[in-house]
Specification:
The protein is α/β, with parallel strands linked by helices. Helix content is 33%, strand content 19%. The protein starts with a strand and ends with a helix. The relative contact order is 0.14. This is Glycerophosphodiester phosphodiesterase family protein.
Length: 254
């Protein structure tokens, strides 16, 4: 099974999501070639890595991420909710993650925004990336089309991808209009016909979020280029070993 394995928010089944611990643990897994993460802005305009717009679920803080300065966010515990052993984990900045992962894995960087919540998010993230990474080593993605359009206005050649949990009939047209060559799509919508269409348009497909080795094997069987995004990277090894086991059984003499 050659499909790329993408660690969703790092190794988020074992470590607190979107923390340095989760990213470090993901990089220690040989099968992980990509890490997916979420970026928002602090009140003072610093890109920080966190999924929810509010702080309550994954930190001991409260309120909106955007209403806190970086200094305030850095005081929060972003690990204890997962396990006592991760007590003291902090919300990382994008730059901290870029330094940790550079040359080790590629990044799927989701711009976490809705409407005009973060008008400067795209430009700020691009500034950090251009100082540190080459475009071949990352893709900028978002559910929010305005954010992807902002990326293209700042730098038309940067790789972008639409995130969607549906399969509309005009999906190819939407991607073309956005200038996207990457599609991040909920795994129930990944079909042979979708992959055929996306391949004809030279669009890379990532299926999310797959936490079943059986589903992983089924989707991988559609095409070896499909990226498999999971909270549990160990399942890639499990799915692969079962596939190999079936192959050996089918090829053994009767």
């Amino acid at each position: 099974m050659d499909n790329p394995c993408v660690a969703h928010r790092g190794y988020s089944s074992l470590a607190p999501e979107n923390t340095m611990a989760a990213f470090q643990l993901a990089m220690e897994q040989k099968q992980v070639s990509w890490i997916e993460l979420d970026v928002q802005l602090s009140r003072d305009g610093v890109p920080v890595v966190i999924h929810d717009f509010r702080l309550e679920r994954t930190t001991n803080g409260s309120g909106n991420v955007r209403d806190h300065t970086l200094a305030e966010l850095k005081k929060l515990d972003a690990g204890s909710w997962k396990s006592k052993k991760f007590a003291g984990e902090r919300i990382p900045t994008l730059m901290e993650v870029l330094k940790l992962t550079k040359g080790k894995v590629k990044l799927n960087i989701e711009l976490k925004t809705v409407g005009n919540m973060y008008p400067d998010l795209a430009a700020t993230v691009i500034e950090k990336l251009q100082n540190a990474w080459k475009p071949r080593d990352y893709v900028i993605t978002s559910f929010e089309k305005k954010a992807l359009q902002q990326v293209k206005r700042v730098h038309p050649d940067l790789p972008t991808g639409l995130i969607i949990n549906a399969s509309p009939a005009d999906l190819s047209r939407q991607l073309e209009e956005l200038g996207c060559h990457f599609l991040s799509i909920g795994f129930p919508y990944v079909t042979k016909s979708l992959i055929k269409e996306m391949t004809s348009k030279n669009i890379t497909v990532m299926a999310w979020t797959i936490d079943s080795s059986r589903i992983m094997r089924n989707i991988a069987a559609l095409d070896p280029s499909i990226m498999l995004c999971t909270n549990r990277p160990e399942l890639w090894n499990k799915a692969n070993s079962r596939k190999l086991s079936k192959l050996f059984k089918s090829s053994s003499p009767k």
